[in-house]
Specification:
With 138 residues, this protein is an all-beta fold. It has no helices and eleven strands. The structure holds alpha-D-glucopyranuronic acid (GCU). Alpha-D-glucopyranuronic acid binds next to loops. It comes from Dactylosporangium fulvum.
């Protein structure tokens, strides 16, 4: 496939809760990060080959204040301080895409809040095939 989706409500969550009270999510819900530094969602992603993969985090932020997060891959910084600005409302979901190096096989991708507001509400991670045409999942 051209991409593979990983639902936040199926990922590992530290300091957050799965909810479904704001419309527009995919799957069965989304993760509401606790409003603390360090709250995170961690996805386990499998790809067939090493490469630079676009990672689209679908989120909502109903406030007017940015909720930055550090994106780490296999425990190492991949995209620090990624901005997740307000989307206009909690039911308004948008993709925030970063590109990161993944290794062949299993990778852990963590999105961790860096401010006391916690992260935005997180719906899913979409891993897209790299531009060289490698499929994102076996
Ligand atoms: C509201 C909203 C939640 C959101 C929270 C927050 O309570 O309903 O979905 O997560 O604000 O500010 O983090």
């Amino acid at each position: 496939p051209a991409f593979t989706d990983y639902q936040a409500e199926s990922a590992a969550v530290s300091q957050g809760v799965v909810e479904s009270n704001h419309a527009g999510y995919t799957g069965t819900g989304f993760v509401n990060y606790d409003n603390v530094i360090g709250s995170y969602v961690q996805f386990t992603v499998s790809v067939p080959a090493a490469g630079m993969y676009p990672l689209a985090l679908r989120y909502a932020n109903g406030t007017t204040v940015d909720r930055p997060m550090d994106i780490t891959v296999n425990g190492a910084p991949a995209a620090p301080g990624v901005s997740f600005p307000g989307t206009g409302g909690w039911p308004t979901w948008v993709d925030r895409t970063v590109t990161a190096s993944l290794t062949a096989g299993t990778n852990t991708i963590r999105a961790a809040a860096t401010t006391s507001n916690g992260g935005p509400n997180l719906d899913r991670l979409r891993v897209t095939a790299p531009s060289d045409g490698q499929p994102p999942s076996a």
